[in-house]
Write a structure and sequence with these properties.
The protein is 4% helix and 44% strand. The protein contains one helix and eleven strands.
């Protein structure tokens, strides 16, 4: 069964850090660009970041630039999202998705709607709550 599984979410105080993981099972991630999205209650899903197959090219939403870092370890079949200087507005369910062979389609997803139907395989999401 082909699956993406996110983990690493939790409750953190403002200014804190979390590292999310997106692990694949049933297929190898190294042939795909991988994107992270998030969805807060009552809001549309939004694109957060994308990393190329090799990891040498990344894209970030303006709202997370300078605070979040996306990376990947193809040997571990896992993509990461390091989130620093977290703010209450970062509170959301975070999802990873396969973006095809490159992050090209993700550039269009930086503005809503993200076009969920254009992405192959979504994880179930992991909750991130930033609160004091």
């Amino acid at each position: 069964q082909l699956q993406l599984v996110e983990s690493g979410g939790g409750l953190v105080q403002p200014g804190g850090s979390l590292r999310l993981s997106c692990a694949a099972s049933g297929f190898t991630l190294d042939v795909y660009a991988i994107a992270w999205f998030r969805q807060a209650p009552g809001k549309e899903r939004e694109g957060v970041s994308c990393v190329s197959r090799s990891g040498d090219s990344t894209i970030y939403a303006d709202s997370v630039k300078g605070r979040f870092t996306i990376s990947r370890n193809n040997a571990k079949n896992t993509v990461y999202l390091q989130m620093n200087s977290l703010k209450p507005e970062d509170t959301a369910v975070y999802y990873c998705a396969v973006s095809g062979p490159s992050c090209t389609r993700f550039r269009a997803s930086l503005r809503p709607p993200v076009g969920e139907e254009n992405y192959d395989y979504w994880g179930q999401g992991t909750q991130v709550t930033v609160s004091s």
